Amino acid sequence: MRGYEGVLVERRMGELAGRLRGPARLKADLLTEARHALLDAVEAYREAGLSPVEAERRAVAEFGSPAHLVPGYQAELAAGALRGLALRALTVAVVLMAGGDLTWRGSSWSDGPRPPEGYLLLSASLNGIWALVAGLAVAGLLLGFLAARYASSRLNRLTVAVGYGLTGVLAGGALAGTALFGWSVGLWDAALTWPPMIIGAVLVGASWFALARAARCWLSAAY
Q: 60-77, pLDDT tens digit by residue?
């Protein structure tokens, strides 16, 4: 573009970018779409006979102020962030529920004395936690999809509530899982050298890192 052309457009895009929070790729896509829409409006006004400066000024004014635009864009970013968190949470929950017991199968201590009742209760509670995570993740995926398609304040509030619930249950699962792992090592020293246990711990650690990043992204977008 020549000279002053695009200055107001880029200034408005900079204002939006500075106030929006959420998944980087989705944010970039939204800003690109907004920029193209503004430039198309500028071009239409110029073809109608307005000067470049007036065409750009009018297009930017009609596009709306950041205060008017940010809530809608931010709701879409929050919905996208929740979809990302829910998809990761659902994947991890299904894998852990399906393969969690494999880390113990065939171990040297599996035929030994029965673990304390508290240990068994904690282990059983983890299964319940992951089942709840899976349920909330499915709800989050559905609501995130609907919130991105339909502008509804009630739907947005429900989406945020499910997102906070999912994040809270994940935090509880992390604490319970860490406690169970520490308790297991305390009961059976051989657990630290049991290959399936080591592999499982590495995979779970990587999964929690990915979940923590996704949860942080969602909390930032929803705040």
A: 999 988 889 998 898 889
Residue with tokens 């204002």: 15
d(Cα 42, Cα 13) in Å, to the nearest integer? 14
User: What is the reported pTM?
Assistant: 0.80
For 61, the token pair is 């004014």
Query: Helices 195-222 and 153-187 sit at what angle, rounded to 10 degrees?
Result: 150
User: CA 209, 215, 221: angle at the middle one, nearest 5?
Assistant: 140
